[in-house]
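Dear colleague,

Following up on Tuesday's group meeting, I ran the structure prediction for the two-component complex that the binding team flagged. I've pasted the input sequences exactly as they went in, so you can double-check that nothing got truncated or mislabelled along the way. The structure tokens for the whole assembly follow below. Feel free to forward this to whoever is handling the docking comparison.

Inputs:
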Amino acid sequence: MKRLFAISFLAGLLVVVLATTFWPLPTHLRYRSLITVPTDGGRQEEFVIRWPEDRIRLPGEDRSDLPATAAVGAAVLEDSAGQRASAELFRLRDADDNVIGVATRLAGTGGAIADPGRSASNWLLVIPSRGALFLAQTDVQDTTVTEVPTADGPVVFAQAQTAAFWAERQRLLVTANAPATTGSVTTGRVVRGTSEFEGLRGSFTETWALDEVSADGSTQGRILLATFTAAGT
Amino acid sequence: MRALVGVLGLLLGLLVGASTVLLNPLAWMRGLPPLSSEIGPFKTYRGEAYRGIDLGAGSLLRAGRQDPEAALNDPALRHVRIAIIVLPAGAGAPAALAVKVSAAAESNSLWRAQLGTNDYWNIYWPGEGSIFATGYSNYWAVTRDGFFAVLGGDFDGARAAGYPVSAPPPPGSAAGVTGAAGRYAGFTGEIRELWYPRAGNPRGTDPDWAVAIKANPPPVTAR
């Protein structure tokens, strides 16, 4: 009996050793990186976000009474001086339309951030299998989302999701061509990267492209993030 | 009788083995020193507005079932969590709007007491500026204490009031704060996080997370 107990005890220890060694911990699905290398060096990579379907819906946003033009997965924080910051959550796609990660867009107005009528925005692109890219820019106009109180709770609206915004255009280059006069934010800058993007610096542009206007006044379109990075520049 | 002795021996072996693995001393040796409360005070918040994994041991071990309402079902996002957070005003700083993305770290290793996530933050203070931050959170101590709490009959889970989950990043990962916009452009610094697992009760209202950030302006250079 003692021998049986000892053998089974050792068998239990062996199971733990094997499980600790071979347990399949989470790994992230990786799609082939779609990178173009220009003649003069560096790397170009384009990311795509489709609105409204790539917005990440947060808990409690399953209300069926939301207006067609409402934006889900977004929040607004405004101070008493009217200075605003807004956050939006998206799925991130590569140029082949595969969902490869998540993207967040934070934009802010006022004070030290941007000139009146403009905002400065940050993109956080997280591709779990590759790392993250941090992007910052001055916007050509105020691109923060707005929150409107309703009887059923606050509703967030994004300009690009309303037909009126596209009355005179089909595309908008959101990245400012020149820095704001506040000078504290440069335009279209890759601030930093992690993991595979570690040590990369460079520039980017953000473009909104309209695809379709629906009869209910809502829109469908794409946010195009075109990055150009190089090591240590 | 023989079968009973065999099963008892096996169970005891599993228990002793699991306890030995969980008591890995590396888990105690790898913490990050806390920031000075004067320079980087902790701001508490309740992290309810999230989608994706719940950061419990089941999610990080790929052994649990995810909440179907919160799960991100895209194949590349199965082990990711994304959240919008409002950091309260206080200690001389206004309220801030933030997003936090956590992705299960592929460098996790049960032998090295690493069961964590790579975390990415973007924090925006209206009218002030914004920062990016990245770090590695290790939930090994939470898992260990939860395991022994269950063994002791306390099914409410882990006992510690707040876990300093921030840990030095594994090779290939990075940690730190990078200023992005406004008056924080060019700043660099550090970030620390605390998790209060017992406050995570869905019906509770207590803050279940806290974050502390220390950021310094860029050095002045003479022309």
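Chain B has four helices and eleven strands.

Cheers,
M.
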